[in-house]
């Protein structure tokens, strides 16, 4: 009996142990290395016995892209149908672009209903083999995109990119399951598509005399003296369209009208409102010379669109519509008469009239038009799709009007903005959109009801190339954040930690192929914690299980790990670096300058814009100066149209000698120095007396340091009022819009 009982327990424990061994790994713990991560992964207990994949692809599904994708992967070969252990099975019940991948013990079934679905299934399978390997549990993946429009834009007008560059870009996009390439073909600085009926577009409009050196905000402007340009012939365009189609990518060509047309006007000045010698622009921004809404302009554009529609067979034609100043139309007797004749309210109405004329023509040929969100102003053309770029507001408005929308807000989707605060970043237009911000972006506005949500077709990143001269630069700005965006657009559920693990592997893969991929995930994100009456403390989010080493004033100090805090007791230079194995992040240098303000309490009357909120109001007094050349990131606070008004409270009455305000100037980005700064003191926090004020605020560099002496005044409360410049005047970049005010730091001594 005793033996029987022992045997009974042995059996029971063995069964439990066996079950434990065979426990099904949860999909979260079973990272397959795929970007964008598939939507449904079921991991079975059984292991596969696959050690080599033999693929047979029927000619109906095959493409040169798939050939290139598969041929380089060891452990995978093409084979005939009989020997294949990867079987493609046409399954009409699966929707377009979706696929079902069944990795079984000795074979793989891939099911889809169309070429896109098979392509995406094979890309996922190849990523598994490459990044995870073939030692696998049996798996079922059921995958389909969250959004049907998954786009990437490239501006080839500011800088021109070769056929090989464009093909390479399409390869990258296909690998990450993007299905739209928005090709920005025309702008003030160059016209890049051959239109046979108008040869001067090729001879004249495709070239500019020279190009601005450095940043637009650097004064005075300097130019390189080199003629610059190029265009794609119609044969080349057709080659690219075919190349893209083989990758399930539709190309959306953009002819930007009625603004951003200086290059066009340089070739056909008769389409302008004034008799002028127009020249393709040699610097960046918005220009007041725009197309005139004359009959001959519309005839010209119809003819251009006819050729364009023959070249691009897709669903959409993009007609721009952004940033069209109205000065030329205000000064034109013809335009003013047209406004009367067509009973339009004003120049906004004329813009709407212009866009509708062109839209109607394109729509009469069975195509849909897309325009930037300015096409809402003065009335939206019927059936127009709105590309929301100045935040989400345009998209929200359009969707509520029943129009379809593509979200590409410059708060999250402008890949020409800086992605890192590191001082070694290549020169960029400005702003700050790190990887994490792209990853956690939701294209669907939170307030949307289901019937409005369906109007969001998807999202898109935009890459404007004023500061990007080479394809290597395009890779640097796009590849890393493009991986984050595709997961936003494709995956219905996301896991950032898993994504970062995959991003590391994918980055290594691209680097091995020679691509210039930005790698910032070991860069340290710091937080300065300030408490009134105490010196600041510093802590980091330590990324990817790295360790952090730091120096103080060039002397090695310590190694720390996640969640350690450092008390900043002295002014001086701290340099932090995170590393793991042979990889390290960019060094983070924080030059602390402790002053009387760093131990004060700060309250702001108005919060800065959520896009430029630094680390909150304490950024202004945390002892770290915002960088001299960049306004985005952890330090600078940006106020759109608002003043920066606030109070510093000291623990006790404090003697003050002077206060210095650091302010950013970047008029090309609509960032203006304030009109006036005034400071007040108080000993009860209620009654304030003005103690100093200045309107003498200027700088020759990008940062103004405005010093207001205080003559050993004693006070417990100090109020500051930094007055926003206001509306941007005519003739300047952003005329008519609210200006930005950027502040950091307020140094109290
Ligand atoms: C844009 O960025 N001007 C659409």
Q: Explain this structure to me?
A:
It is a single chain. With 749 residues, this protein is α/β, with parallel strands linked by helices. Helix content is 25%, strand content 27%. It is built from 16 helices and 36 strands. Strands 8-9-16-17-18-19-20-21 form an 8-stranded parallel β-barrel, surrounded by 4 helices. Strands 30, 31, 32, 33, 34, 35 and 36 form a 7-stranded antiparallel beta sheet that branches. The chain has a 5-stranded mixed beta sheet with strand order 1-7-5-6-4, with helices on one face. It starts with a helix and ends with a strand. Residues 15-22 have low confidence and may be disordered. Bound molecules: acetamide. The site of acetamide has 4 residues, from loops.
Largest sheet: 8 strands, parallel, barrel
Helical residue percent band: 10-25%
The share of residues in extended strands comes to: 25-35%
Supply the helix-strand structural class: alpha/beta
Total helix count? Answer: 16
Strand order of the largest sheet: 8-9-16-17-18-19-20-21
CA-CA gap between termini: 89 Å
Average pLDDT figure: 94
- Integer-rounded radius of gyration: 29 Å
Report the uncertain regions.
15-22
Number of E strands: 36
Q: Which small compounds were modeled alongside the protein?
A: acetamide
What best-fitting shape do the alpha-carbon axes yield?
globular
